[in-house]
Every structure is written in C-alpha cells, then in structure tokens.
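Team,

Forwarding the record for the chain on the shared tracking sheet. I've put the sequence and predicted structure together so nobody has to dig through attachments.
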Amino acid sequence: MSYSVICPSCHEKNSGNFLVCQKCQTSLLGIPREEFPPSSLNLTTQKTDTLQKEADLLAKISWAKLFRLFVTSFGVACVIGLIVAYIGSMGLDWNSRIQFSNGFFYASVVVAAIGYYNYRNEQKIQHEINMLYSQTTGSMDISERRKLWSTDEKNSYKAFFYLILVSAYLFGFAIIIWNIF
C-alpha cells in the first residue's frame, strides 16, 4: 500500500514521499496524502454494469469510425475518379474503356505510392531523430514526448491505411470499367 498526493497547481499525481511536484515543481508540503489503492475497493454490480456499458459504447464508436473511414475513402476515390475521367475525356481525348480503365489503374498506383511514401517518411523521421539536450528541456517531459510520438505514429498508420483503401477503390473502379463499359 502506498500514498499519493495531487499537486494543487497542475493536478499531477505524485508519490506520497515527494516534497515538490514532479511536473511543475510546486511545493507539496502540508497537502494531505491519500492512500493508494484505496482500502475500500469494492466493485459492486452497478460498477461492473457501468464498465460493460462503457465497453459496449466503445465497440459502437469503433464500428462507427470504421464505417466512416470506408465511406469517406469511397467518397475521396469517387472525387479522384471524376477528376481522372474529366482529364482523360477533355484533356487527353480518351474515348475507349481501355484508356479509362488504365487511367483509373494509374491513379490507384499513384495514390498507393503517395500513401507508402508518406508512411515511410514518417517512420524515417521518427526513428532518425537526433535531438540535442537543449531541444529536450522544453515544457514536455519524456513521457509526454513519447505520447506525442506514439500519436504521430498512429496517425501515420491511419493515413497509410486510408490512402491504400482509396487506392483499392480506384483499382476496383478500373476493373469495373474494364469489364462493364
């Protein structure tokens, strides 16, 4: 069993034996310590029901985000497809299904290449960071910096998946144009 203390300035949780806050260096003298974990740790049926409801809500949100991802990537693929079709018909005088199908195929390859290039660049930047000491003494501590880096990495994965999905839709459009029109 240990004790903790909450900083009155920044609300950071500190170990009970600290005299100053780890984050903002505010004095913690005279601030009451709390027992951690609390000795009365009774999980009632109501709390477990609340946790189950929160888990169900997270599952619904995840499905909603996934659905939104597929719908928006389909919309972006349609817009890119319209641009390719317009450029092909007006600027390049395409008049056969083979030319349009090839145009959509090349557009899908370009979008996939952009996604891959963006992903590899993000990975390269994150793994080749050589920071000076003066660059690390800012207002962020190492845990905050790691959270920021992990968020950036997660966003690069999302962008890569999004562009690959757009590319797959464009490739599907190319196959449909080739087979139907």
